[in-house]
Amino acid sequence: MKVLPLHIGHQVHPSVTSRAKRMLDILGAIVGLVITGIIALPIAIAMQFDDPGNLFYSQTRCGLEGKPFKIWKFRSMITDADQKKHLVENKAKGHIFKNDKDPRITRIGRFLRRTSLDEFPQFWNVLQGDMSLVGTRPPTTNEVSMYDDHHFQRLKVKPGITGEWQVRGRSAVLDFEDIVQMDLDYQKRWSIAYDIILIVQTIVVVLTRKGAC
Q1: What's the pLDDT at 7?
Q2: Beta strands in the chain (DSSP E)
Q3: I want to staple 213 with a disulfide (CB 3.0 to 4.6 A). Which of 29, 75, 78, 171 is the partner?
Q4: Is 13 a domain residue?
């Protein structure tokens, strides 16, 4: 994996050191984990009827300044999905992988993705401090290994469960450069008030299933 360029890595975005943002993250994570505990059992039962296997799925992602961490989700794909990724066409442009008709997604998994319920275990990542409620899209290590220098700018803040990309388009955003621009726009606009606005907008987007695959 490429090393974060020094001229980028040494710049500290104000959101990283904000105590108010961290307190908002902790409060939101606690509420989110309570909800996660409530929905875990029915999801686990439905999953065993659909595609038996682990309830959770973890993957290594890159966080602040490229630091790797394990991201957690409710499993939405078949158990050997990673081994079959090469069989699926990538319909996105740039350093991301997307296919809204991905055959590896299970029936319950498609429901979890449409409703964003698959994301709820990430509240644990927020509580641990690897992620924030609001931030940039968390890239995979493979994606970061292909970055050009200007792409590393998006790693100056913690990745978020939601962010500009979630509110502005979700799965409809298929160009990596568009995601990068959204992430940079978030860094320029950031404030606690803006985080709260994006959280409220995310709830609306999820409830209306706008941009969900």
Answers
A1: 46
A2: 56-62, 68-74, 132-134, 160-162
A3: 171
A4: no
